[in-house]
Amino acid sequence: MLQLPSPPTQTLPFPMTSIEDAYEECRLITAEYSKTFYMGTQLMSLEKRRAIWAIYVWCRRTDELVDGPKAAATTPATLDDWECQLEDIFAGRPRDRFDAALADTLERFPLKIEPFRDMIAGQRMDLHRSRYETFEELKLYCYRVAGTVGLMSEAVMGTQAPTTTAPWDAPFESPIEEAVALGIANQLTNILRDVGEDRHRGRIYLPLEDLHRFDYSEDDLMAGKLDDRWMALMQFQIERAREYYAEAERGIGALHKDARWPVCTASVVYSKILNAIERNNYDVFSHRAYVSGFRKVLCLPVAWLRAQVL
Q1: What are phi and psi of 266, to 5 degrees?
Q2: What are 52-110's pLDDT values in tens digits?
Q3: What's the pLDDT at 192?
Q4: Quick one: CA torsion of 216, 219, 223, 225, rounded to 10 degrees?
Q5: Of 70, 96, 157, 256, which residue is 20 to 30 A from 44 by alpha carbon distance?
Q6: Angle between helices 148-157 and 46-67 (to 10 degrees)
Q7: Helix/strand/coil for 217
Q8: What b/e readout covers 160-179, taking b as 16+ CB neighbours within 10 angstroms?
């Protein structure tokens, strides 16, 4: 675990009434831009939910460097500067309110800097790549921009070994691989949902080897062709995403008891986007798949029951 120095005694270089104000700003941003993520945090303890809000805002700010309104001005040097700012946060030298919220979170939970650095590396990939030849290449990207969130969140959620074991039970292990799998599942879901939007930015995240497998060309995708080839390709991609959700679910039982329902809820709700794509007959070019508020509420008891038996 990274040892943090004592908080600086000098006046912070930005106005702040309290750390509570900083967390409240993080809460508002999370609630506005990631309703599913926010819904899951509402089932957590106050300390854990505030930590997740701070992490989410840092991740969002990182993503917007490449995909936000000012992304055209982002260069490798921009990301180098952002990584220096990250190092300042871990050294207890926050530069703004959002940094302060994350710095406070670091004092409360054993987060490591590596997943944050890896996420910045994922943004560097977006600066110079718009295609992925194989799924293995895409998987690395998905880990960096989303699997890392699983690692960050796992440090906040905490783990809890079983209270009873049998001689043949395997030794308890922290669900690190499963946490990464959930992030990858979420990112694959994002990719499938956003195919139509990404093509307008000249990006194709679906592995080119998969397009070739189903005899569906880049030109077909850019033209938004909906046919049997596209449906078969999307069914294949959806099944792959669901396999990652299934892998992630196997790790929920190792989380601390108070974190199982929130994580299970977020997983169940987000995976429903795949169902929405299917209901739209795989038309992700003219219809954005989403989960309605009513359907999200219906997921709550389902997720609760799963969390009890995992």
Answers
A1: -60, -40
A2: 999 999 999 999 999 999 999 999 999 999 999 999 999 999 999 999 999 999 999 99
A3: 98
A4: -10
A5: 96
A6: 170
A7: coil
A8: eeeeeeeeeeeeeeebeebb
